Structures are given as structure tokens and as C-alpha cells.
Amino acid sequence: FFIVSAGVATPFWDATFCLGVSNLLAMTAERPGFVDEVCRRVLECSIENVRAFAAARADAIYVDATLTTSDMISVPQFERFALPYITELVAEIRRHNQLAYVYYFGGVADRLDLIASTGADAVWIETSMKGYTNDIDSIAKAIGDRACLHGNIDPYGVLERGSDARLEAEVRRQAAAGAKARGFVMSTGSPITPGTPLSRVQRFIELGRM
Length: 210
Description:
Strand order of the largest sheet: 1-2-3-4-5-6
Number of strands: 6
Oligomer: single chain
Helix content: 40-55%
Order of helices and strands: EHHHHEHHEHEHEHHEH
Largest sheet: 6 strands, parallel
Shape: globular
Number of helices: 11
Structural class: alpha/beta
Distance between the termini: 19 Å
């Protein structure tokens, strides 16, 4: 077994619990220094949480990078309000001999080099949806040997609703793309939907192991 024991969110996301989502996003333009200070203070708490999770001695700890994607903030905002904190959390996780996973719920095509620069051992990318495209082949080429990549098969359109042939073709396509990364884990890019039959999940696992 490989166990991801627990994880933390980026300070930028956790800041929403202090400021609210709308206020936080507005403050990145209107009061950026204040957002910096809130994120720095939240980071201190996040690091302590990483240390506590590391004491469980599993295999990996994740960083949830919600709200830091192209559909939410710009690349310059990502560089200021997300990248330094993700990098520090990754470093803290690895300091405790744990693997660091980072996952992104949103578009990432315009910031892949920055994402890879955090030093994360593995990167999870969401399925293409909501107006953005996360093409697994382009992502694998951009990340290259800097991180292990998790696939982003559409859990509704392909896994639940697609034909067997479509599911197999997508698994094969993603496996070929993932060969360009340092490692590849076959995965859906969003949670498996409740209407998905168990037999389809089993078939997905079988195909992923071929």
C-alpha cells in the first residue's frame, strides 16, 4: 500500500476562512500587502500541521492548491500569493522524509513551469471543464522529469457515461502521455461520480494496470 496520510491547503485558500473568497480576491488588487501578511501567518499554522501529520509516518502528504489556478487568479498573482507558500510547504514535507503531492482544481496550462518549480514529487491535475483545458499530453511535456503526474480522466463523460471503447482509448492515450513525465499514475481528475457502476470502476482499474 501507498498511503497519503493527510494534507494542508495553501495559505491563500485558508485565508478565505478569515476574509471570505470575494474579499480575498478583491484584496489581491486593493490590499496586496495585507494578503501577504495573512498568508504568512497562515503558513506558520500550516507548517505545524505538516509536522504533526509527518509524525504519523505514512508515505506522503498533500498540498491542496485550490483557488490558485488560471480560472481564479493570474500568473503574477500566483507567483506572489501562492508559489512561495506552496514551495515552502513542499520543502517542509520533504524535510520530514515524506513525499509531497500538490493538486490543482482548475486550469493550469499557463503556469506549468511554476508548478513544476515547487519541487513537488507528484502533481494532480483536474479534468478539463468549466471553460479551461488541462490537456494531459501538454502537461506531461511541460513537467517532464521534474515530477510524477497523475492522470485526469473525465469521471463523468468518460468513466460513468462513456462506452467501454472510449474508456479504454482514454486510458491508453493518458498512459502514452504520462510516459513523458517522471512517473505516471492513472487517475480521474475529479472525484468518481455517484452514478458510476462498480463494474466500471473495476474495469478502469484493470485497464490502468495493463
